[in-house]
Design a protein that fits this description.
alpha/beta, Rossmann fold, 8 helices, 41% helix, OmpR/PhoB-type_DNA-bd, DNA-binding response regulator
Length: 222
């Protein structure tokens, strides 16, 4: 899941980003409204965690433009003011959810995860291919009943490939969906991650390379 945090309180923004990354999400951060607005329309994010009162472009305007764009991006609006009137106004602007400060981090994570599920085409709660079973909510993967220990990035790549249901997913798409903006676009990290993922999943291979195009899940004989 790709998330953008737009929050001018740097310590809070960085803490949110660290916490979400620990949950396996790819997170970018903007500390003002202008840069947040630019990032939101350059990269396809699943969720934007958006402070309402921002320097530069106001969070209300960013929220309204995201909603008007028709993008699947979901907006979780944060604000220090948590009155009913404020919540109603935020939702009327196009926010998908609203969380007043201060908030419990576990609740923030749960809300981001719920919004992320709504930002992508519907997928089964448990992803399966042959004897591989992947549970994105619990972040578990088993093959033939045995647990497969994966890093966050390996798990993210595997989920993206399984959700594609045999369609080719390019390296660029995987880089955008699983890594954040700090990653060098010319890196070989996707190829290396797929290579280690294949090794961990074992035989018969479940991921195949489509030369010049990307990767897809393999057809496994019944």
């Amino acid at each position: 899941m790709r998330v953008l945090v737009v929050e001018d309180e740097r310590n809070l923004a960085d803490a949110i980003a660290r916490g979400l990354r620990k949950r396996g999400m790819a997170v970018d951060v903007a500390y003002d409204g202008d840069s947040g607005h630019e990032m939101a329309f350059v990269t396809r994010y699943d969720v934007v965690v958006l402070d309402r009162d921002l320097p530069g472009m106001h969070g209300d305007q960013i929220c309204a433009e995201i909603a008007a764009s028709g993008a699947l991006t979901r907006v979780l609006m944060l604000t220090a003011s948590g009155t009913v009137a404020d919540r109603v106004e935020g939702l009327q602007l196009g926010a998908d959810d609203y969380l007043p400060k201060p908030f419990a981090f576990d609740e923030l994570v749960a809300r981001v995860q719920a919004l992320g599920r709504r930002a992508t085409p519907a997928a089964p709660p448990v992803l399966e291919l042959a004897d591989l079973v992947v549970d994105p909510a619990r972040r578990t993967a088993t093959r033939g009943g045995a647990t497969v220990e994966l890093t966050n990035k390996e798990f993210g790549v595997l989920c993206e490939l399984l959700k594609a249901r045999g369609a080719v997913v390019s390296s660029e798409e995987l880089l955008e969906r699983v890594w954040d903006a700090n990653t060098d676009p010319f890196t070989t990290i996707v190829r290396v991650t797929v290579m280690t993922l294949r090794r961990k999943l074992g035989d018969p291979p479940l991921i195949e390379t489509v030369v010049g195009a990307g990767y897809r899940t393999a057809e496994v004989p019944a």
